[in-house]
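$ fold --in a.seq
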Amino acid sequence: MIEVQYRTIHTHAWATANEVVTMTTGQRTKFNNADDTYMEYFRLSSEIFARAFDRIAGVCSEKTNSELLEKFSYLDATTSISHRLRHLNMAREQIDHFNGGVVLKFAPDGSLTVFYVPRFENAMEFYFKIEKSNPDDDVVLVNSSEAGHIRSAYRNYFSDTSEFLSLLESARTIISEDGDGVAYEPG
């Protein structure tokens, strides 16, 4: 079996971010099984990309650019998705230089704390201590003898979403500068 995916740079970045959010939040946006705010975040970001880069209207063609950007900004602020993705990128960079176990703690506000398992401590015991002391957080143990193995084994957690975030910022600027009078071709 062979799967071929034909994507533009921005659709690939969007799909990667979608997959990372699915893996790190438990919100199964990739499978259309998530909280409405998460689904709407990706629906609106898709529309922003379509207007800015493909110059077409997508799934939110009824919204003006101003309405689209306002709604997206509100959702981004309430879900902290972009914030979480930035923190995952920072964790990826830190782990590139570390061998051993790592515990990732995602707080409800989207912040991420990286704990390195002490050299002579049992990784599972260390993980359970952090999980027990942070019951409202999503705690994940990532354990391997080499950083490269960690990134390989948990590639969705460590996928680089900086391209998505950069493209999203550019796209928001483009359609903001377009104003509300621009007519986009139907997608």
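$ fold --in b.seq
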Amino acid sequence: MEGYDSGARQWPVAWSAIWVGALAAVALGLIIGLLGFAVGAHEVAKAVSFKNIRLTSLIFSVGGAFFAFVLGGWVAARIAGIERSEPAILHGAIAWLLTVPMMLLLGALGAVRYFGGWYGGLAGNLVLGPTPTTVDQATAAAMRNSAFATLVALLIGLVGSVIGGWMASGEPMSLTYYRWRELRHEERPRRVA
């Protein structure tokens, strides 16, 4: 179909910026995880129940998952030089997507424990020899809680990378801003106080 215009705009993807953003997220996640170990916030990795987790452990785990990916999204969008929120958010989310297989690889190598206990579900359970037919209740609960904590950490990381990309764009963090950004200042609706 010659001359067909779908009306779609392409958003260029700056892969080098995304790689650097993903590496920045992994590096900051490692730093926060090791800092958590240094101050004794490491009980998440061995907790069978979420009731046993201290507030310090929770702060390091959730804060580490969030702020590491805020940095990753911010770095990806800033290096790419993006000034619009939508492509900046896209770059932050792609940096998060690139980080997930990195974390899976680190989990397979056994190095994910240095990032704190929330990513323990990425390591899986290595079984050498015959597969056990039954699993005791404590082990099953620990595996379930580890998988849930890993899911929460990954989703918090996705939110962080989106917010980081949005912050890097420099546009106001308002969901209605995109409606008015193309209008001149005089044409924008005025707020009534």
